[in-house]
Amino acid sequence: MIAKPAWLRRSILSSEKIEETRRLLRHFSLNTVCESAKCPNLCECFEKGAATFIIMGSVCTRGCRFCAVKRGKPGPPDPGEPSRIYEAARALRLRYLVITSVTRDDLADGGAGHYADVVRYLRGRLDDIKIEVLVPDFGARESSLKAVYEAKIDVFAHNIDTVRRLYRSVKPNSDYGTSLKVLKTAKALSGSIPTKSGLMLGLGETEEEILTAMEELREAGCDIITLGQYLRPAADRLEEREFVSPKTFEKYEEIAYNLGFTSVSSGPFVRSSYHIACFNTT
Questions:
Q1: Residues 168-171: contacts with CB under 8 Å, at least 24 apart
Q2: Domains in the chain with CATH codes
Q3: Which tens digits make up the pLDDT trace of 12-35?
Q4: Is the entire prediction scored with pTM above 0.85?
């Protein structure tokens, strides 16, 4: 096990605002990626009254080896979830919402219809709101992707997470080519809506593989990219192979802009929905 460097050490925050956010989420029986995936930015985001909502339960049908979310047999989507997310978003005074989910291979549409229900409910009740969806691959079904787009989203995100060579060891039940197809199809459905993806670094990938992944994302029409350090969320998950320096993240940010990405967020603590408000979605 390699020692964690100084730049990855963060103090634990505690405040009434963080506890208030936790209480509110429990009150509305809502899941967040912040908690389920043990995000290192949880305290910072909760302090700001921000959260990324995870819909359709807290049990995933895939079980990726980097993720803390439990694998198993999930229950049916909750029809009351859209209204509870609305009430929580209103109480938190959010103006930019991220909706994501566990992977639901047990559903014929992969859960796309429930995404659409949530987005439409929010759209009908909140003014001046930006909505980003961070979706699973839906098996690259165009009908599922179209259902999400027609609900009127502002940003479409789907993470490839790692480089092609490592896909089977990191995401054994997923496919790299399928993820690229999802992004390419999404861009074809509506070129005016930004598409976004993310990479975790430190899993054993090479610089050449990272650059190839970024080039392939651009070829698929991806506009926005996030690059962050993988941090093992539990003892039974994949170990970090490397801790990437802040200087290296800065280099990748410059390369990404040179490749034509319109927005780039690159750093050790960057996650897919971290600092979301900085992205230009107009």
A1: 169/65, 169/238, 170/64, 170/65, 170/66, 170/203, 170/238, 171/62, 171/64, 171/65, 171/66
A2: 14-278 (3.20.20.70)
A3: 556 676 677 778 778 888 876 655
A4: yes
